[in-house]
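Q: What does the predicted 3D structure of High-affinity nitrate transporter look like?
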Amino acid sequence: MVSARKFVLRYIVVISCLVASATAGVQFSSLPRTLAVTVTIISSAPMAPNVAMAGRDQLVVSWWVNESSSPAVSEYKNVEVKLCFAPVSQVDRRWRKSNNDLKKDKTCQFDMSEQLPYSSNIKNNTITWTVQRDVPKGTYFVRAYAFNASGSEVAYGQSTNKNKTSDLFMVEPISGRHASLDIASVVCAAFSVVSLFAFFLVEKWSAQKAAGQKK
Ligand SMILES: *[C@@H]1O[C@H](CO)[C@@H](O)[C@H](O)[C@H]1NC(C)=O
Ligand SMILES: *[C@@H]1O[C@H](CO)[C@@H](O)[C@H](O)[C@H]1NC(C)=O
Ligand SMILES: *[C@@H]1O[C@H](CO)[C@@H](O)[C@H](O)[C@H]1NC(C)=O
Ligand SMILES: *[C@@H]1O[C@H](CO)[C@@H](O)[C@H](O)[C@H]1NC(C)=O
C-alpha cells in the first residue's frame, strides 16, 4: 500500500504538470512575421551610435503591417511593443532565456506600450518610450506582437533579422547601480532551485517514514 501522504504528493505533481500543459502559451515559431518594426534612438547627448542611456534617452519605434506578407489583419485586435534581449545578452542568464512557448519566454521583459488597439486606417504607428532606469546594460532589439480578440499572439515583427544579429542597439546605465538588479535575479533563480530540492527531500522523507511505519 502506498501511504496517503505519498499518494497525495504524487497527485500534486501530476496535477501541476496537467495545469502547466493546459496553460501553455502560443508557440513563437507558429507566428507569421507580418509586422515591420524600426527603432531610432533620440539622445540629448549621444555617447556613441546605437547607444541609449537608461533613464534619459528615448526610443522612437515605428511599426506597420507589411502588406506583402499576406497578413490576416481581420484577426488583429491589439498590438503591444516590447524591448527584448539580444542573444549576446542572454548567454549564461537563465532568467532571460528564450522559449518557444510565449508564456515561458523571457526574451522581451520590458513593455514599451500597453496593448494598443489596432486600426487598419493607420498605416504607420509610432510610439516614443524613455528607456527606463531599471533596464540593465545590454544589447537589445524591439519586437511587436499582434493579439487577437481573445488575447492570443497571432503575429509579430521585430527590428532585427530572424537570427537577432542585425540592427541591435545597446543600453548603458547612467550610474553603475544596475548590478543589484542582476544580483536579485540570481538570488531568485537560486531560490527556485532550493525549493525544488526541498520538495524532493520532503517526498523522500515521507517515503522513508511510510516504509518505517510498515515494519
Ligand atoms: C515584407 O514581407 C515580405 C514577404 O514576406 C518580405 O520579403 C519583406 O522583407 C518584408 N518587408 C519588411 C519591411 O519587413
Ligand atoms: C514608417 O515610419 C518609419 C519612420 O519614419 C519609416 O522608416 C518607415 O519607412 C515608414 N513605413 C511605411 C510603410 O511608410
Ligand atoms: C485567438 O488565437 C488563438 C490561438 O491561435 C485561438 O485559439 C483563438 O480561437 C483565437 N481567438 C479568436 C477570437 O479568434
Ligand atoms: C541563422 O542561424 C542559423 C542557426 O544558428 C544558421 O544556420 C543561419 O546561417 C543563420 N542565418 C543568418 C542569416 O545569420
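A (community wiki): The C-alpha cells above were generated from the sequence. The pocket of 2-acetamido-2-deoxy-beta-D-glucopyranose (ligand 4) is lined by residues 163, 165 (CB under 6 Å). The mean pLDDT is 85.
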